[in-house]
Design brief:
single chain; alpha+beta; 4-stranded antiparallel sheet; 9 strands; 53% helix
Amino acid sequence: MKKKLPALFCALALILSLAGCVISTPDTVGTIGDMEITSGLYLLAQYNAYQSAANLASSDQDTANVKSFLKETITTDPDSGETATVSDYIADQTQKNLDLYAAVESRFDELGGQLTEAEESQADSYASQLMDQYADTYKANGIGLETLKRFERILLKSNDLLELVYGQNGETPVSDADLTSHLETSMYELAYYTVPLYNTSTYAFADDDQKAEMLSLAQAAVDSYNATAPDDAAAQFAAFNAAASNALSGIYAVLDSTVPADSTTSLQTELLGNRTLDSTFTAEGSADAIRALHCGDAVAVQYSSLSLIMAVRLDPLDGSSLDAVRSQVLSDLKSDELADALADYGASMEHHLDAPAMNKLPASKIEPASSSNR
């Protein structure tokens, strides 16, 4: 599911209602290591920093009023209670973002990385799609297509670095034993059904009593499976599928709804990392319920505010091989470590940034996305 490093770049790529100013801008703002920092890349880094600050804002702070919000104070670390003014936070985060971009480029080159033609084509295609979708916002903020293409290449390089650093032929390869241990102890192969907590025709939401009844019916199906659960993953999958699917019509009927005939009600499978469970299972206690499962065990829980889930945990190596999930396990195990290493590496590189040039690109000139681009 979501990984820290890819998740950072994907968030940037999806937001990309990027920043800038309409005054005359410099072509570049200097270099970090051998990487030239164009004004477009600087504005991208600065806007992402602004978005991060906006995500930390309290409900009474107006993040659309840029000049006013820059003067506000936000809590940057909920655990320690550390705070910062928004303007200081943005300046610091902008630099960290630039350091990360430069570190990705530099490490990729050091390790002999090279994007394939297919990857370059993918980067160009996605950049063009973003430009088509958010053209007005990009124009207002001084972001061009070439900046988006460059950013998309950095994104792909960051993904490739996991293999270049930790892969089987990488700089510091992770052993199969370590990958297997992480897969078995910190990842969860789930087969599951999700059921919406609303009528799929009228969109009327379930009240508390209806939610309780739906969960009770789901739990009864899970209990019937658990009582006679077989030993191997294939048989567990089949037995759980039978028990859960037979309960669906009764669960939907609580809201006078019927089971949809499309693929939304088919049994799904997914391999999740332990550190993503809390962001995936957002209802109170649901992530812990998944963590408590042993292979072959099933559970029914409210998955989020909008749905419940019936899920069984399977052994991902029963009937499959490590190679089938190697890249996903490697990402779950090493993404955080790689992100931290890149941050340190970027900060240690030689910085030759032009303060006067950056001053021509102030955060106060950021243009939030228009409603049509959201």
